[in-house]
Prior knowledge:
With 255 residues, the chain is of the alpha+beta class.
Amino acid sequence: xxxxxxxxxxxxxxxxxxxxxxxxxxxxxxxxxxxxxxxxxxxxxxxxxxxxxxxxxxxxxxxxxxxxxxxxxxxxxxxxxxxxxxxxxxxxxxxxxxxxxxxxxxxxxxxxxxxxxxxxxxxxxxxxxxxxxxxxxxxxxxxxxxxxxxxxxxxxxxxxxxxxxxxxxxxxxxxxxxxxxxxxxxxxxxxxxxxxxxxxxxxxxxxxxxxxxxxxxxxxxxxxxxxxxxxxxxxxxxxxxxxxxxxxxxxxxxx
Length: 255
Ligand SMILES: [Zn+2]
């Protein structure tokens, strides 16, 4: 069982070297089935950590977890956030009841299941025919952080269409094609990231100067120099953006 304090900045119960066993440490807190045999124990904000354990911000704790524990922690945080926030039926506004032993809710008025809110996002490694990678700097990122083109999927929009739309809206590029790579839950607060590799049909970049402040094509040596000089920094290690960028840097991601 993973210990979680849900919220906009969720926290994980940590032991030395990894996730704590919350079922033993927090016997009075609420257990929730999370799926894949994983459980979560939800604690209230401000709950003291048991002796020898500590609450840590989930986003900061993730990169230090063993790789097999990272998706476990993400799933526990996602379910914990949903369970703590999804108190009303999105269709009729009525109250919901826990649907034991499933992780979800049932509308108390209508008796129908209430599914978790998930906000799909596409994130795209745009490559040109010379195997250069496009990175952009958005106004809502810290100074110097360059990352892949990304955005939320609109209502009724297929992922592939969102990839093409975001590439054109953010950096003015037409795409010749795109292929799905992988997905990752990103429950801060409820995103599901779908990563793509795409081949640009055009290479002239155009940014709006408002949402996107800068964008550029990088060869591998150019990115290495920009990182060495400190002019460019990349997103945090355990993000699908960073992992996709690193795959391109190592030659494992090609169009
Ligand atoms: Zn309802």
